[in-house]
Every structure is written in structure tokens, then in C-alpha cells.
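Project outcomes to date are best conveyed with an example. Our students and postdoctoral researchers have been running inverse folding experiments weekly, and each run begins with a structure described purely in C-alpha cells. The record below, which covers 72 residues, was selected by the lab manager from last quarter's runs and is presented without edits.
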């Protein structure tokens, strides 16, 4: 669902921001910064943890919308 969503991964060395899609991040462990050549390790647990939360938030929102509808 979020595979085409984009995340910004800043280079820890030079601060260059790299925009990558979730699908791309899931299939790569690291990439090389185009600006300084630094190898950037992609911490999947850290990067994707926020998305799971987002997913849960949407599920909760749907749930509360559902119960809101039932009141009438
Ligand atoms: Zn860099």
C-alpha cells in the first residue's frame, strides 16, 4: 500500500537528501550518496516503523469512522 510512497533519507555525512520510494528501500540495504560518495546504510526497522504506525492510525481512523456512522 505504501510501496509508492516516498521517504527522504538524509546523508549522515553531507546532509544531501535522497528521496526513495518505500518499495525501493525494502529491496535495498544501502546506497551510495551521489554527492559525497558515502555509503548510506538503510535501517529498515527504523525507516519502516513509522509507516506501520501510520498504517495503524489509518486503521483506527476507519474504526472510529465506522462506529461514528453506526450512531445514526
Ligand atoms: Zn553525502
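After processing, the design step wrote out the following sequence:
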Amino acid at each position: 500500500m505504501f510501496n509508492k510512497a516516498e521517504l527522504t533519507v538524509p546523508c549522515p555525512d553531507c546532509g544531501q537528501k535522497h528521496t526513495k520510494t518505500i518499495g525501493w528501500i525494502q529491496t535495498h540495504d544501502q546506497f551510495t550518496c551521489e554527492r559525497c560518495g558515502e555509503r548510506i546504510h538503510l535501517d529498515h526497522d527504523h525507516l519502516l516503523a513509522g509507516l506501520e504506525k501510520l498504517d495503524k492510525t489509518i486503521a483506527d481512523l476507519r474504526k472510529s469512522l465506522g462506529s461514528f456512522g453506526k450512531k445514526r
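Residues 9 and 15 are 9 Å apart (CA to CA). The mean pLDDT is 87. The training component of this project remains on track.
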